[in-house]
C-alpha cells in the first residue's frame, strides 16, 4: 500500500512539473506589448554581498518602462477591462511600470535578472 501511494505521488508530481513547464513556455506568448520608451531614473553600484560572491558587484538600474498594447489583439484578451481603457491616437492602450535591473558590473559573469 505504501509503495502504491508513493508511485501515485510521483505521478502527480511529474504531471504538475509538466504543467508548470508548459505554463512557463506559454505565458510569455499570452500577452503582447510594444515597448515605447525606457526611462532610467537611477544607477548605482552595489558592493558584493554574500549571495553575489561569485558574480562580483552589481549595478542597480531603476526606472520606468512605457508600453503599449492593442486591445483588439486576441493575445491581449486576458487583460481585464482592457476594452474600457483610454486609447491613444493609434487606437492602442498605453501604460507604464517601474523596473529594477540588477546586472553585474563585469558582464562576463552572465548572472543577471530583471525585476519588474
Assess the beta-strand content as a share of residues: 25-35%
Shape: flat
Q: Unreliable runs, pLDDT <50, ≥5 residues?
A: 4-10
Write the H/E string, N to C: HEEEE
Would you count the extended β strands for me?
A: 4
Protein structure class: alpha+beta
N-to-C terminal Cα separation, in Å? 47 Å
Order of strands in the sheet with the most strands?
Answer: 1-2-3-4
State the helix count: 1
Biggest sheet architecture: 4 strands, antiparallel
Overall structural domain count? 2
Mean pLDDT: 75
Q: Radius of gyration, Cα only, in angstroms?
A: 21 Å
Which range best describes the helical content: under 10%, 10-25%, 25-40%, 40-55%, 55-70% or over 70%?
25-40%
Short key terms for the protein model shown above:
116 residues; alpha+beta; 2 domains; 25% helix
Summarize, please.
With 116 residues, the protein is of the alpha+beta class. It has one helix at 2-30, and strands at 34-46, 58-69, 93-104, 113-115. 25% of the residues lie in helices and 34% in strands.
Amino acid at each position: 500500500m505504501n509503495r502504491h501511494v508513493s508511485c501515485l505521488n510521483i505521478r502527480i508530481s511529474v504531471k504538475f512539473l509538466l504543467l508548470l513547464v508548459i505554463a512557463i513556455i506559454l505565458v510569455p506568448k499570452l500577452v503582447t506589448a510594444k515597448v515605447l520608451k525606457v526611462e532610467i531614473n537611477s544607477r548605482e553600484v552595489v558592493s558584493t554581498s554574500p549571495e553575489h560572491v561569485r558574480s562580483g558587484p552589481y549595478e542597480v538600474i531603476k526606472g520606468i518602462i512605457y508600453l503599449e498594447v492593442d486591445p483588439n489583439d486576441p493575445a491581449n484578451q486576458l487583460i481585464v477591462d482592457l476594452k474600457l481603457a483610454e486609447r491613444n491616437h493609434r487606437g492602442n492602450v498605453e501604460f507604464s511600470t517601474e523596473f529594477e535591473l540588477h546586472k553585474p558590473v563585469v558582464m562576463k559573469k552572465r548572472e543577471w535578472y530583471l525585476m519588474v
